[in-house]
Amino acid sequence: MPRPFWSGQIQISLVSFGIKLFPATEAKSEIRFHQLSRKSGERIKHQKVSDDEGPVDNSDIVKGYEYRKGEYVTVEPEEIEHLRIPSRHTLEVTQFVDEDELDPEFFEKPYFVVPENDVQAEAFAVVRKALQTTKKVGLGKIAFGGREHLVAISAPADDKLAGMMAYTMRYPEELRDPGEYFRDIKKVAVDEDQLSLAKELIKRKAAKFVPEKFKDEYETALRELVEAKVKHAPIPREEPAPKSAKVINLMDALRKSVRGDAAPAAKKKTFAKPAAAGPRKGISLVKPAAGKAKSRKSA
Question: Which of 84, 168, 237, 269 could be disulfide-bonded to 149 (CB atoms 3.0-4.6 Å)?
């Protein structure tokens, strides 16, 4: 198991127990670009420089706060490390809220929460079960990464997952006012027939969320581009979108969409299953889709 990102105490009134936090996400992009000189092809190196000294070593760099134009007060790393912040080592849960009270825009990054050791497992399990059965989320604050974060603690509904989840959250002042962006949207009356067709279209496309179905097509397109360049093969390019011969009004578009999704299962049965593609050579890092190459749209 990797080292925990944070370890300390969860405190709920007089109850406290040790926990460890592990990041629940990781970067999966396997295409890495470097900066090169267009003329020489050499790697570009970045240096930290000052006007008077030129290049400066990291050990000689300190943080500075500009309190007046051109005047700074310096802060050493050791001084920051000894700031008096209780939440550096203790996550005090100060409130519980219903799960559906937290709007998605407040959530920032997920973490796995596990008990610090077997001694802490009993209190951990009791609090986890209590959160699960009451469908509540605990809110508290924790300090790391140069700031104090608002954190939500929750328990997965699946009993097979014996841990808890923590989510760092954004503060209200970090969210832009949606009114600034939504207030100029034209107010229109919703036609009942159009609404009925739109609801039917949503109903027919509704399905259980399966995360594995969603892949990063941008990453796949980048890989195809790099492989083509390595092999000096033709570079796959985006195909222009077909031009529509006539303008379709909203009602016609809804009707055709609903008819097009009338029997997707039956249509799928008419296609033969493609043969599995053999292994690809070169720098392929994941298995591409079998069969003909597809053009990708840039994000």
Answer: 168
CA 290 vs. chain centroid, Å, equals 28
Residue 299 has pLDDT above 70, yes or no: no
Residue 26 identity (one-letter amino acid): E
252 within domain boundaries: no
Which pLDDT tens digit goes with each residue over 183-196? 999 999 999 999 99
Return the CATH number at 160: 2.40.290.10
Count up the domains in the chain and report the number: 1
Are 10 and 17 in contact by the 8 Å Cβ rule? The answer is yes
CA distances from residue 146 to 24, 72, 94, 238, 286 in whole angstroms, order as listed: 20, 19, 22, 43, 36
pLDDT tier, 249 (very low <50, low <70, confident <90, very high otherwise):
confident
Query: Backbone phi, then psi, for 295, in 5-degree steps?
Result: -80, 150
Could you tell me if 227 and 284 are in contact, meaning their C-beta atoms sit under 8 angstroms apart?
Answer: yes
Give 48-106 pLDDT, tens digit per residue.
998 888 889 888 888 999 999 999 999 988 888 888 888 989 999 999 999 999 999 99
Interatomic CA distance for residues 112 and 105, integer angstroms: 20
pTM of the predicted model as reported, rounded to 2 decimal places: 0.72
Which residue blocks in the chain are alpha helix, DSSP H? 77-81, 121-134, 179-182, 192-205, 217-230, 250-260, 264-268
Q: Which amino acid is at 164?
A: M
Confidence tier at 286 by pLDDT (50, 70, 90): very low
Judge whether 292 lies within some domain. no
User: Percentages helix, strand, coil for the chain, rounded to the nearest 5?
Assistant: 30, 25, 45
Secondary structure E strands in the chain: 6-12, 15-23, 49-50, 54-55, 63-68, 71-75, 90-98, 107-115, 136-144, 147-154, 164-169
- 8 A C-beta contact, residue 124 and residue 17: yes
